[in-house]
Amino acid sequence: MDAGPRLKAAVKRALKHGAAIPGKVVRCAEPCLRILTYHSVGTRKHDMNVAPEDFRAQMEWLAASHEVLPLAAGVEAGRGIAVTFDDGYRDNLTNAAPVLQALGIPATVFVVTGRLGQTLDLGDHAGASGLMTWDEVREIRRMGVLVGAHTVSHRRLAALNEAEQRAEIEGAARHIEQHLGQPAAGFAYPFGAAADYNALSVRIVRECGFPVAASNRYGGNRPGADRWQLRRIWIDATDTLPTFKAKVNGELDLLALLDSRVGLWCRRAFNRSLGIR
Ligand SMILES: [Zn+2]
């Protein structure tokens, strides 16, 4: 199936009309908080890896053009942009944090607390890139990056019973308190699509006292949005600076419709059809 031209036309229309689909998804009207999701920023061979030079260009444009807030502050304000990283790759410390620090951009990294110092090698997250050690997590925190939890072992919460979910969520909160001497800045659901966590996961996250929790359901967050099921906007290897800008500006909020495995495939195919890696 050659979906490229049709998708290209659809997104062109979406860009022109603010991604409005009558009665379904409309462009998030201002004010609106948009939370960006990154994974590794390095040389990992993976769709979710962003090249360091692309990351720098994205952050330079962001710092010059938008108000970037710490995640919880953004939720309180109901506007602005927040920057987050999932998993806790070592290259977040070596490649991303120096750029963030130089530009004064606040960010949060959600770490897999039981896998630090090892590699994360599962499904969509496969790759050779190592995760930070606790020493390195403390170092990235000293550079101004807030630290949140991404469970103990990155299991798909929706597939777990209550005791297992509690072990993953409470355990991660406890690890962060023990190793950093302060509560986690927030929580991110592993994988994070609507099918990857459930109402029980949300309840446990709230009971554990996490101030905010982020999914990977695509989209912006209007004031009053559920702070324990925040939507995010994934940034990955297929994004160029123009698509990055369109996402940050809400011109691709249409992609909320593509919050599925098929949708993700379509989006990447579309990016590639534009000649983007
Ligand atoms: Zn993850």
Tell me what you see in this structure:
This protein is an alpha/beta fold and 277 residues long. The chain has a single domain (32-271), classed as Glycoside hydrolase/deacetylase (TIM Barrel, Alpha-Beta Barrel), CATH 3.20.20.370. The chain has helices at residues 4-16, 52-65, 71-77, 90-103, 134-142, 162-180, 199-207, 241-248, 261-273; strands spanning 33-38, 80-87, 107-111, 145-149, 187-188, 213-218, 230-234. A 7-stranded parallel β-sheet has the order 4-3-2-1-7-6-5. Strand 5 (187-188), helix 7 (199-207) and strand 6 (213-218) form a beta-alpha-beta unit. Helix 1 (4-16) packs across helix 9 (261-273) and helix 4 (90-103) runs parallel beside helix 5. Zinc ion (ZN) binds at residues 86-87, 125, 150, 154, 190.
Key descriptive features of the protein:
single chain; 277 residues; alpha/beta; seven-stranded parallel sheet; 9 helices; globular; binds zinc ion
Structural topology:
Elements: H1 4-16, E1 33-38, H2 52-65, H3 71-77, E2 80-87, H4 90-103, E3 107-111, H5 134-142, E4 145-149, H6 162-180, E5 187-188, H7 199-207, E6 213-218, E7 230-234, H8 241-248, H9 261-273
Parallel strand pairs: 1-2, 1-7, 2-3, 3-4, 5-6, 6-7
Helix pairs in contact: 1-9, 2-4, 2-8, 4-5, 6-7
Mean pLDDT: 86
Number of helices: 9
State the major sheet.
7 strands, parallel
User: If you consult CATH, what is the topology?
Assistant: TIM Barrel
Order of helices and strands: HEHHEHEHEHEHEEHH
Rg result: 18 Å
Strand content: 5-15%
Oligomer: single chain
- Would you tell me the structural class of the helices and strands? alpha/beta
Helical proportion, percent range? 25-40%
Low-confidence stretches: 12-26
Question: From the coordinates shown, what is the CATH architecture?
Answer: Alpha-Beta Barrel
Q: Please provide the count of β strands.
A: 7
How many structural domains? 1
Listed once per kind, the bound small molecules are: zinc ion
CATH structural class: Alpha Beta
CATH superfamily heading: Glycoside hydrolase/deacetylase
From the N-terminal CA to the C-terminal CA, the straight-line distance is 20 Å
